[in-house]
Amino acid sequence: MTKTPDITIIGGGVIGLLTAREFFNAGATVTVIDKNLLGQESSWAGGGILLPLYPWRQADAITRLAIQSFSLYPALAAQLIAETHLDPEWNPCGLLITKNPDITAAIDWCNTNKIAFQQAGENFFNDIDTIPNNPLWLPEIAQARNPRLVKSLKQDLINKGVSLIEHSELTSITQGRELNRAF
To answer: How many domains would you assign to the chain?
Structure first.
């Protein structure tokens, strides 16, 4: 007998795995399907920076989403360590932007969004081969090491009993009846 999950997520990158985790935690049965190994491709190659570069150039909706997401990572990292014993290597290491021609917009954005910042002094550039242009230091910005984050998320979902299907490319989807279930 085949059991149909409440939610099927196509794509097992960081976003797909985090989405599966949220749906599971809300009470849904979840399956994640990926055409390759989970967490490869973009998730594997990404830099892990939890704030877009030059965030002041982004739409306000992206800012709201990024700041909300950024605030959730410390608790997520702690939960993943406690539940999987795998450290996603969330690290509040700061973000140094060395070339910033729109410094006024950057400072306005930081002030509006209560993001700590300081103008980066010469000591930041002792070991960096660059000529800075209005550099800005954001000391509270963090990063996660993507391969470690994927590994801990995957283990968390396995521990929870979420169905993870790798090496399965979807070629078609058949829509069935809709459920009126709220999560």
So the answer is: 2
- Rounded Cα distance, 73 and 75, in Å: 5
For the stretch 104-138, pLDDT in tens is 999 999 999 999 999 888 888 888 888 889 999 99
SS3 state at 20: helix
pLDDT tens-digit readout, 19-46: 999 999 999 999 999 999 998 877 766 6
Domain that holds residue 30: 1-47+146-183
For residue 170, the one-letter residue type is L
Instruction: Measure the N-to-C terminal CA separation of the chain; round to a whole number of Å.
Output: 25
CA dihedral 173, 146, 74, 10 (to 10 degrees): 0
Do 110 and 29 lie in one domain? The reply is no
- What distance in Å separates the CA atoms of residue 60 and residue 36, rounded to the nearest whole number? 34
- One domain, residues 94 and 177: no
Distance CA 68, CA 76 (A): 13
Q: What CA–CA distance (Å, rounded) separates 98 from 89?
A: 24
- Nearest CA to 67 out of 164, 150, 165, 140 is that of 140
Q: Sorting pLDDT into bands at 50, 70 and 90, what band is 50?
A: confident
